[in-house]
Amino acid sequence: MPERPYAIPQELVERLRTANKIAILTGAGISAESGIPTFRDALAGLWAQYNPEDLATPEAFERNPRLVWEWYSERRSLVTQVSPNPGHLALAAMERFVPTVTVITQNVDGLHQRAGSTRVVELHGNISRVKCSQEGIVVEHWEESSTPPPLCPFCHGLLRPDVVWFGELLPEQAMREAIKATATCDVFFSIGTSGQVYPAASLVDLARGSGATVVVINPDEKAQALPSFYRLNGPAGQILPQLVQAVWPGA
Ligand code: OAD
Prior knowledge:
This protein is α/β, with parallel strands linked by helices. Helices cover 33% and strands 16% of the residues. 2'-O-acetyl adenosine-5-diphosphoribose binds at residues 27-30, 32-33, 38-40, 52, 56, 106, 124, 164, 166, 192-194, 196-197, 217-220, 223, 235-237.
């Protein structure tokens, strides 16, 4: 999308200047400009014939553990080859001006941490972590196998990515932190998410119900289209740096 200026409402600029706590829900859209395909855009290349919902489930892993492991290995290596984009970097920069900035991400790519954000709540896990499918413990080192997935070095169960699959519960601690940050923030951003997957999508309602100023950033004007929100319709990688500059000139 060509670079263009986005008007940041002056009221929102003032609100952000006086904010003590900001909570930011992010989805796949904030990593799109780093080159990572979103979920509900067409799946790139090799995986075009699969539907994420048919790969990211315990049943899919049960049915075909090798296919699921290889799909995640492909995405894991993609993540190591890409970098945080100006959208991730702008969110990290906010920490220099606002006492508490909590990023609540549905993404599993770790790009917020690599951009420098220090309070990141991973609702759906992290693709760079691997855990035992039997015991659930995270495994740091494993023997690669000629017939993946590799086996847990402790119990010889199959290893799996440490991410939340459809139908699985979100990590309790992460959800608790996300709810606390959302319920107590002055400004809540929802950036790059179609808002179709719960419970993450419920955080926007919690924010609104708690009296926070809600800001949606998404090129799709229909995504999370509810009244009384600030909406900035465009790519996060362009809007966020402009927003940070408008609120904290010279940032
Ligand atoms: P989706 O693929 O559902 O939605 C991505 C959103 O990002 C869409 O609304 C796009 O319009 C928007 N978008 C695209 N490019 C953008 C850009 N440059 N800047 C800002 N927004 C942009 O991805 P999620 O909403 O993250 O769950 O999906 C939520 C969950 O569903 C994922 O975490 C995953 C998936 O199944 C699990 O894996 C459990």
